[in-house]
From TrEMBL:
Signal peptide: 1-19
Database matches in InterPro entries: Beta_helix, PbH1, Pectin_lyas_fold, Pectin_lyase_fold/virulence
Domain Right handed beta helix: 178-337
Coiled-coil residue spans: none
Name of protein: Right handed beta helix domain-containing protein
UniProt keyword terms in alphabetical order: Signal
Length: 368
């Protein structure tokens, strides 16, 4: 066989092979992501579309109020008509999830879920004694939440009350076990009973960009909490998180009382370019951290509190309120380096150290 005829035979063999496989083409087409529309005859509720969807499908949720609870175990994209137009509203009776909490939206089973242009809203109808609302959006079981241009609001009970582990707007991971991750950006988190965004567990991670996180003035709240978790909080606006009455455990003593913060973070978290207004503590940090370029306004206790570790603050601005920077040593010798930190118009100490149990707290400053 000549080389030319050999090449022709190969080409013919390839064509015959493709012809034999032709019956598989529809299967390939069927594997492409579908778009399921809610409400429709086939999918009257969001959960019915979630249940029917294949991993990777998209669910378009039209404008309206959907009084239901969602559980998502697979990779999906949910897109509403706008955060002010499409709302997933807590039903009157919530079903408890595998974590023992009642959540409006629950993600687990390592699902990767994109949610945008819709609202998740309470309030719940339970009480601290029975049926308390656990979270607006719950991320567990290694799941990942991608939340953008959305809103999570009114995450509280009826009547509102300071229930233990209750009513966090977005709750990611768990302690001592349980992980999750999230990217939350350009969203509004408001009127929560516990905390705005909480990330728990050293294997959990969250990136928080350009969000507005606003507490309320009746109960003690925190804005953003990283607890043994890693991540990044950048360009967020966080306000109105403090001790409220009645809360006898709250107070200015770092050794025997609780303080509430706009952002609470630990080693492995980057806190930069945020605006923190009217919180009890603007930033409350533990471990080894560097903050930078944050603007902190009108804090009730201190703009920044660094506790038990090594810290650097670079070009943060603290303006108004009571105190500037607190450095607290209760478990290890603690150092804080303030590099070009501007502190103006406060009524108390620019810097103050709190020492306990034989440990020392040291502050060094470099002027702007």
């Amino acid at each position: 066989m000549t080389p030319f005829r050999s090449r022709c035979a190969v080409a013919l063999g390839t064509l015959l092979a493709w012809a034999a496989l032709g019956s598989y083409a529809p299967s390939s087409a069927a594997s492409q992501p579908r778009e399921l529309v809610v409400p429709s005859t086939a999918y009257p509720t969001v959960q019915s579309a979630v249940d029917a969807a294949h991993p990777g499908d998209r669910i378009a949720v039209r404008a309206g109020v959907y009084r239901e609870q969602l559980t998502i175990h697979k990779d999906l994209t949910l897109t509403g008509a706008g955060a002010g137009k499409t709302t997933i509203l807590a039903p009157e009776h919530l079903v408890t999830g595998s974590d023992g909490l009642n959540s409006i939206v629950f993600l687990d089973n390592a699902a990767r879920v994109k949610v945008s242009r819709l609202s998740v809203s309470g309030p719940g109808s339970g009480t601290c004694a029975a049926g308390a609302l656990g979270a607006g959006i719950r991320v567990l079981g290694g799941a990942h939440l991608d939340l953008s241009h959305a809103a999570v609001s009114h995450i509280k009970d009826t009547p509102m009350a300071p229930c233990f582990r209750s009513a966090n707007a977005v709750l990611i991971g768990d302690l001592p076990t349980g992980t999750g991750s999230a990217s939350i950006r350009d969203s509004k988190i408001t009127d929560y009973q516990g905390a705005g965004i909480v990330v728990l567990n050293q294997a959990s991670n969250a990136t928080l960009l350009r969000n507005v996180v606003t507490g309320q003035k009746r109960l003690s709240t925190d804005g953003i909490e990283f607890v043994d978790a890693t991540g990044r909080a950048d360009e967020n606006t966080v306000s109105d998180n403090a001790c409220r009455e009645p809360d006898p455990g709250c107070g200015p003593d770092f050794f025997s009382e609780f303080q509430h913060a706009g952002i609470l973070a630990n080693t492995g978290v980057e806190v930069t370019r945020n605006r923190l207004v009217g919180n009890q503590l603007g930033i409350y940090a533990f471990g080894t951290m560097e903050t930078g370029h944050n603007t902190i306004v009108d804090s009730e206790y201190f703009g920044i509190a660094f506790q038990d570790g090594r810290f650097t603050a670079v070009k943060d601005t603290i303006r108004g309120g009571v105190g500037g920077v607190a450095v607290v040593a209760s478990a290890v010798d603690t150092t804080a380096r303030l590099d070009q930190v501007r502190i103006t118009k406060i009524s108390g100490d620019r810097t103050r150290t709190f020492e306990c149990c034989g440990f020392t707290a040291t502050v060094t400053t470099t002027k702007p």
